[in-house]
Design a protein that fits this description.
Distance between the termini: 9 Å
Number of helices: 16
Number of strands: 15
Helix content: 40-55%
Largest sheet: 7 strands, parallel
Shape: globular
Structural class: alpha/beta
């Protein structure tokens, strides 16, 4: 069977597609469409058939025109019998086209449906969801199946002491893990840099900067910063980092939320302000369960952020209570369980396209 998995450019889009690609590859011909050169190269090295292009411009009209032509070419080239979309505006036309000719589903990992998926939800056959969805129409609800948010099989758990020993960190000093998603976040990077410069508390640092800011921060840490630190542009092997950490400073994408609940690392979220508000809703979910903190980028107060950060870092009892609540959220699922939820979609539905 020909299966097309359609993602945009972030790890939150690409990772669940990669999990399903691994599961379906043995008995099917699997194509992955995505728009990140970094992840295209990474997946091709692992032997996957990868399509799509990262555009050098951000003009909405030109990008839309290109994606329409690209979608037609990709669909005609692959002639998929099953299509699953994972969100992102660059995927909307390809998923919409597929919904008329192939058996098509979408995966919405967030607590509220994004703009792209809210449109596509009216056309596709199934909607797979990570969180328990908020405020959806009856028509959308009838198509919805909750599958959770997959945790990478490589995400091993270590004891805190063992993880810090592997990283060469002091066993008892607190560790703060900062990252802004697979693309990085200059806003979060700059907030964290200021925190490092102004906070008087002694703590160790793990910082994933994204490619754009990596050279600057490598120089910053190497020449100026004197504490124990690890700085990288990006890494899939984050299990060790989470296991070593006490506090996470990050965006509030669905994959990050699942990892936070899995590793029980106390989150200070700064949701992306232009992510259809779904990151803000994800962070609000944690706040409502008293399992994390959220700070709006639109009216960000560094002083409030710093006060909260320092209070949490020095209050072990508060950390313990929040981590207990994190353990009860149950957002994450194992890779194998996640894939099993999609088996009926792929295997047990009559063919709608002829085999080649």
């Amino acid at each position: 069977m020909r299966i097309l998995l359609v993602a945009d450019r972030s790890a939150g889009h690409i990772y669940p597609a990669w999990i399903l690609a691994k599961a379906f590859k043995e008995n099917n011909k699997v194509y992955i469409f995505l728009t990140s050169n970094y992840f295209k190269d990474w997946l091709r090295k692992k032997g996957f058939l990868v399509l799509g292009r990262e555009l050098p411009f951000r003009n909405v009209v030109l990008e839309m025109a290109y994606r329409i032509i690209e979608g037609l070419v990709v669909f005609l080239k692959t002639r998929p019998q099953r299509v699953i979309g994972f969100g992102g505006k660059a995927t909307i036309f390809l998923i919409l086209l597929s919904s008329f000719f192939s058996y098509t589903a979408i995966y919405e990992p967030n607590s509220t449906i994004g703009k792209t998926n809210s449109i596509l939800g009216f056309f596709v056959k199934k909607i797979y969801w990570g969180f328990n969805p908020w405020k959806i129409s009856k028509m959308i609800e009838r198509k919805t199946i909750k599958v959770g948010i997959p945790i990478r099989s490589c995400c091993k758990k270590w004891s805190k002491e063992e993880a810090r020993k592997i990283l060469g960190f002091h066993p008892w000093k607190p560790v703060v893990f900062c990252f802004g998603g697979s693309q990085g976040s200059r806003f979060i990077n700059n907030v964290f840099k200021r925190l490092l410069e102004e906070s008087k508390i002694d703590f160790q640092v793990i910082h994933l900067t994204g490619q754009r800011d990596y050279s600057y921060f490598k120089n910053f840490y190497g020449k100026i910063f004197k504490k124990n630190y690890l700085v990288k542009d990006f890494s899939w092997e984050v299990g060790l980092f989470y296991s070593a950490s006490d506090i996470l400073i990050s965006r509030a994408g669905a994959l990050t939320c699942a990892e936070v609940s899995y590793y029980k690392v106390l989150p200070l979220f700064i949701p992306h302000p232009q992510a259809s508000q779904h990151q803000e809703k994800n962070a609000l979910y944690f706040v409502q369960h008293r399992a994390g903190y959220s700070f709006s980028q639109r009216n960000f107060s560094f002083q409030n952020f710093k006060v909260t950060f320092e209070k949490i870092l020095t209050d072990s009892l508060l950390q313990k209570r929040v981590k207990e609540r994190l353990g009860s959220l149950n957002l994450w699922v194992e890779e194998s369980e996640f894939c099993n939820k999609f088996l009926s979609f792929v295997a047990n539905i009559p063919e709608l396209c002829s085999n080649s």
